[in-house]
Amino acid sequence: MKNRFRLPGLFLGIAALFCIGCGAGKHQGEPWVKYEDKHSGLYGYKDLSGEITLNPQFTGLTNADTFRYIMAVHRPTRAGYEAFYLLKSGRIIGRDSVYQSKAASFDCESEGKIIFVDPATAKIGFFDQDGRVAVPPVYNVATRFYNGVSVALRNARKKCWAGEDENCEHWNWVGGDTILIDDKNKVLISHMGRGWERLNFYSMKVSDRPADTALYNNYRGAGNKIYSFVNYDKEFTRWFYTTWLSLSDAGKAAGTMFEEVDYLVDETGSKRAKQGSPILNKLSSLFAKRFRQAKKEQRTIEPYMQTRLYDRKAYRRFLDACGSYKSMEHPLYEVTISSADRNDKMRQESVLFVRMGDGYQVLTISLEGV
After folding, report:
1. DSSP letters along 248-296, please?
2. How far, in Å, CA of 243 to CA of 237, rounded?
3. Which CATH code fits 233-366?
4. 103 to each of 45, 310, 319, how far by Cα in Å?
5. Over the stretch 84-119, which tens digit does the pLDDT of each residue have?
6. I want to staple 257 with a disulfide (CB 3.0 to 4.6 A). Which of 104, 232, 275, 277 is the partner?
7. Quick check: pTM over 0.85?
8. Given CA atoms 167, 168, 170, 174 in this order, what sign does their dihedral have?
């Protein structure tokens, strides 16, 4: 198994793959940014100065918006198409090992790691930024690495929605063990259970005693130590009640606004205001008042799972190398008030928050009758 992925250095013609004269190994670690060639519809990469470093040759399956050390690519050939992992040096590895998710998308590098699949077993592992096997392919599925750890599933089996046919189109993993591993493949926690998706892995603490359960989830792990993680749901609920409502009541919520906030108050459509705008203080105060006045069953605080944000420069910080939303770093929460007017017409008013730094900021506000 080890030798399967210790592939020799395979090279395309450097002039064909990389820009002539641009040097394949140049600017190691500097991000190269994807661009589209309008004539061919294929994609290449440029450095931060705008110089072409990879000629346009890849299809849209090459979904890495940023190329730092290693990426999965897909490109047309005379015989059809080929997929492989490409390193900045020009080295190619894993021609038969490119991982595709259930959504048919390639993985992207995260913390110098990228998922690959063993074609013989369909198990996944991780290459490091130098193309070496960092984590062997022994898992059914795994998250990307966050703060040096990944949640992985092992010893599970596929279950089709309509039966046990292995060739089914729609299926789920069932059984197995959900564990936490580090980037050396050490098992830190042997049973994660449910709810790990709401954990802040960047807050991990290892100690002999459990952390405050009003804010943390605790797990007994390697070395009989307690691994503690902030639970985003607990954190946001506490922050909303103890910080945001109080600041909004006092008309001092300006610091909890994102740099630009979309707000909707009538049928003329959404408007935008910058942080510090008086209208945002007014709207936050009004929402806080209505929230307190609403009955318990009319109020909801829930994770907001629709993470497709508008293509706006201010939002780019929330996207990873694949252009996907970084939900493990910047979870979204929506606070909603549902009520009926005098004519029994239902209405919903809401505020959408995003985690920033040690707190949360308002992205959007929707109110009626302002």
Report:
1. HHTT--GGGEEEEEEEE-STT--EEEETT-HHHHHHHHHHHHHHHHS-G
2. 10
3. 3.10.450
4. 24, 21, 18
5. 999 999 999 999 999 998 778 899 999 999 999 999
6. 275
7. yes
8. negative
